[in-house]
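Appendix B. One record, verbatim.
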Amino acid sequence: MIYIIAGQTASGKTALALDFAKRIGGHIINGDAFQVYRGLDIGTAKPTKEEQSSVPHHLYDIVDIDQSFSIFDYQARARQLIDELLAKHVPVIITGGSGLYIRSVLFDYTFSPSRPVDMSMYLAMSSEERHRFLQSIDEESASKIHANNQRRVLRAIEIFLQTGRKKSEIEQDQKKTPLYPYVMVTLDQDKEVLAKRITTRVEMMFKSGLQAELTALLNHYPPTAPGFRAIGYKELLANPNLSEDMLIQMIALNTRQYAKRQNTFFKNQFHIHPFKTHDDALDFLLKKHEETQ
């Protein structure tokens, strides 16, 4: 049995995963696409060094910011790690908000090693032009992805260019039965509560030195490095002249929009057990763990 603690950013996943892992002697595996990068600590709300030392953590701080780390790489590393831990009867807990990364581990997603693709032409297009191009190569995916969802439109185009196959075709080939039995809980905060938590988190990031963290990293890595696509860093890089208050508002807004997409993905792509409170979710997980013993 694999335990998944997922859901929206700033919902309290890290604290729940830590408490649960301590109670059952579990290991935590990162399920966040940007927490794999060394140095992106404040902006990704990565578990602190103290938190990571309190229970075993895996797949955090494993690549440099200028390195490419694809979902293919994550799937391979995570599955190998899960198999090793389960063989030793170690409880496995995956926590994070990158739904597709988590799904790639649990389900029969087949990826090819990613090869570099020049996306500059598509980045320069307008949203409407990009979406029309996606329609020309993968009409089914285009019908499911809104033209304004730049990230997903670009990813669908990139998949076609890398593999020569439509994203929709690949998804149809994927089996729906999970490779590992799993229990997934999400912490679902009310919209207003989550919005306040996100704003508070972004304010704390600035107080903790987010801008100084980025400045120090830029001494070693170019601003185009893959890791800097994370929310928080990309806004700072694109708007060097904005005030701190304006940056906080922008990052909080983008984070809220991302949280909304996370919520939709988890509800549509997984069988989940949603909870409002930390304690209720923890009690549920502990009971599920007892049932497997």
